[in-house]
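FAQ
Q: What does a multi-component entry look like?
A: The components come first, one per line:
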Amino acid sequence: MELGRREMIAGAAALAATSGSGLAQPSGRKMGYAIVGLGTYGLGVITPQFANCTMSRLAAVVSGDPEKAKRVAAEHGLPDRSVYSYANFDSIRDNPDVDIVYVCLPNSMHAEYVIRAAKAGKHVMCEKPMAVSVRECEAMIAACKAAGRKLMIGYRCHFEATNLKAIRLVRSGAIGKPHYFRSEHGFVQRDPSVWRLKRALSGGGSLMDIGIYALNAARYITGEEPIAVTAQESTDRSDPRFHEVEDQIAFTLEFPSGVIGSCHSMYSSNQNHILMVGDQGRVEMEPATRYSGNHMWTGRDGRERELIPPPGPGQTQFSAQLDHLPQCIASGREPIVSGEEGLRDMRLIEAIYRSARERQRISLAPARRG
Amino acid sequence: MELGRREMIAGAAALAATSGSGLAQPSGRKMGYAIVGLGTYGLGVITPQFANCTMSRLAAVVSGDPEKAKRVAAEHGLPDRSVYSYANFDSIRDNPDVDIVYVCLPNSMHAEYVIRAAKAGKHVMCEKPMAVSVRECEAMIAACKAAGRKLMIGYRCHFEATNLKAIRLVRSGAIGKPHYFRSEHGFVQRDPSVWRLKRALSGGGSLMDIGIYALNAARYITGEEPIAVTAQESTDRSDPRFHEVEDQIAFTLEFPSGVIGSCHSMYSSNQNHILMVGDQGRVEMEPATRYSGNHMWTGRDGRERELIPPPGPGQTQFSAQLDHLPQCIASGREPIVSGEEGLRDMRLIEAIYRSARERQRISLAPARRG
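Then the predicted structure of the entire assembly, as tokens:
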């Protein structure tokens, strides 16, 4: 049976706090990751992070660009047999160096590669958003379960020191009874040619990409699952960037405790902010979920005290995330950001889009557990 | 014909900038105000502000407490004949010292005293919210029109330097194309016995009292009138403070340009914040609408530069507001925050309450103009 969210989050904090302290996988061998998709994130952000990992290493690369793949493999001392194309990806089953496949592809390709990885007998890390539909998410979870392999979603903020500190503050009663949550997440998407603006690849616009941080944070900061959502979209369809996907979408989440969560997602301005207000005070982060340089304040009415979380033991949010899955594999625990976590967000994303389209409030079924 | 909102706001800024510079009413006589309601606001906040006025003076007091009224009159050198009770209020018509009646009573009494003041031949300033229903607002406007007297609503932020600077920045294109507006307004309403928590006197909870600042700011900062509103209320009805009126209410405004306005009103935490985001930057105020000590920042992604408006020519937002109505009376212009302005907010307040109650989006008829 799955742990409750509160326990999972407490677990996340505990793991993040200990994962860099020399705790090793029983066998002593670092687990090998195959990175699928050598784009900005997979190559530019994730690959360098293995240097900060204690339980994970780069073991293989999968790319549609053979030259790039060979170059990256050479730079990281990988043998030729650990370079894969999308055509021969399934043969990764025969590579004992690869324990985990990390899917960093465009959103609409997540489901296919997660399912193929599970069928190849590998554990799977998949970038957010988990997929482009609830149906895909359910198929991904089923495939990993059938293969007896773990599935984790790349929600790095669950391993980020500022966000973990904010969660602890809220759970510890530092702000009193939580009343309302707010988050804006956006950036200026300048290039009309990027895959994120093509619906067939992205499945949606700013919400799928950056607004999901606000949505996920609304759940991990409050520790609650929403019971209703109401959304409004505003997109200038004459803008070449937004012919296929949304620019701005606002969504309001109603939580069982009475907390109201007000979120805003956009591709037309740079916003990165989280605020949780209770009857005794507030916790605020701006920027809140960046790769680095996040800031946090507490106060009664405003930004009265800046809190700087103590530096972690040599780990970043990325390396802590990468090391979490090997820890779960070794211990048999479910990842704190499992496929179920990705599915919960995807159910909400579908409801948000539906609410905006139909211009009505959408009631949500209670989240299924386990 | 009434000026468009943009012109009115430009006019507000211009007037505020010049009103303290020695511009005098043609006759040279300061116009006399009768303050109706010697409570926290009328006595504690407004009355001392006549010291900062160039065109206005305290001329009479109206109170249900004869001792208090006499004491205040004595402190301000008013003759006995300028002290009124609610019973003899209508005889104020015979007092040539009184040009303007300023209604600082509980919300549900605004309509009665505005109408009685107009019938007594006086111009009227009325505190926000203008009344407790659209029907009352319409009757108040009609009564003032029939009497040939001006009606102004006490929206002090239209005379507050930080807010005026924010309006100018947005209108001048400093943030590029406006995309979204956000405002939270709230404070902790501690005493369950205050009239603001009795529906018969207040007409509603936090929205009527403090949330109206967010609503009004959404309109004056964007310079637009919303075309739809969607609201969610969350109130702990077991809390003795909230047996009759709402605690929290969130409302999302859709504007014709595509701007989304996301507002939050509450009686359970101290929040006072305005943010306007465009595709080239943002303007933020926190606190935004306090009596003093408001702060403003501009930036691309966050609070990059604090802007401090130059100190005004000896006027405060309160004295500038008090002097605006005499200027309008002398020049024949409509106040920038006329009865129509109060009515627009009241139409929206009724729509917000209806949206929260019916759990549906409310489309709004285009705002009627002058």
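Q: Is there any commentary attached?
A: Sometimes. For this entry: Residues 161-309+346-363 of chain A form a domain with the Dihydrodipicolinate Reductase; domain 2 fold (CATH 3.30.360.10).
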